[in-house]
Amino acid sequence: MLDFDLAERYEIETKRLKEAVRRNINRFLGNDFMFQLSNDEIIELSRSQIATLNKGRGGNIKYPPFAFTELGVAMLSSVLNSEKAIEINKEIMRAFVFMRRYALTYSELKHELNDFMRETKERLDDHDMKFEAIFKLFDEFIEQKQELEKPRKQIGFKQK
After folding, report:
1. In terms of DSSP H, where are the helices of the chain?
2. SS3 at position 139
3. Alpha-carbon distance 92 to 101, whole Å?
């Protein structure tokens, strides 16, 4: 996200956001947190169909904006000291905890499935031929389904 979008989200001026980043620049070192847009990117971002400048303060990009990655947004919410920044930081932390719980649940489920498959294979080693036949049928079924899903010849008015 760009600095002016984040400043709006955090309900502060872009100038103040950039000041906070520069005061804590050690937290944002490396491209995995933040980087500054190049002149070509700025031109592409602010290109207009009309040759005149946008009216109003802040309508045109004067200084290269900072672009923040996901990690940079999380770091920024911990650097800014406002009610909105604190609230956003709390939401980010809650999201991390939720994702960690989900990852553990997924990991446990994967472990259980692997155990089940191993036990099943041990019990049914002598039935390998049956499994091969079943898998062969599945493969044939998938091939038939792919044949049915091929794009059909278009009907109707055709241009030369």
Report:
1. 3-9, 14-23, 39-46, 70-79, 83-123, 128-148
2. helix
3. 14
Using an 8 Å Cβ cutoff, are 74 and 35 in contact? no
Bigger pLDDT: 7 or 132?
7
What residue type is assigned to position 73 of the chain? V
pLDDT score, position 126: 56
Tokens for 129, please give them.
Answer: 């031929």
Tracing tokens 């044949």 back to the chain, one arrives at: 147
Bridge partners of 67, per DSSP, are 2, 35
Angle at 132 (CA atoms; ends 130, 136), nearest 5 degrees: 115
Going 79 to 80 to 82 to 87, the CA torsion angle's sign is negative
pLDDT tens-digit series, residues 66-116? 888 888 888 888 888 888 888 888 888 888 888 877 776 777 777 777 787
Contact between 47 and 32 under an 8 Å Cβ cutoff? The reply is no
- Which pLDDT band, with edges at 50, 70 and 90, does 125 fall under? low
Measured distance CA(147)–CA(100) in Å, rounded:
41
What does the block give as tokens for 5?
A: 């979008």
Bridge partners (DSSP) listed for residue 34: 68
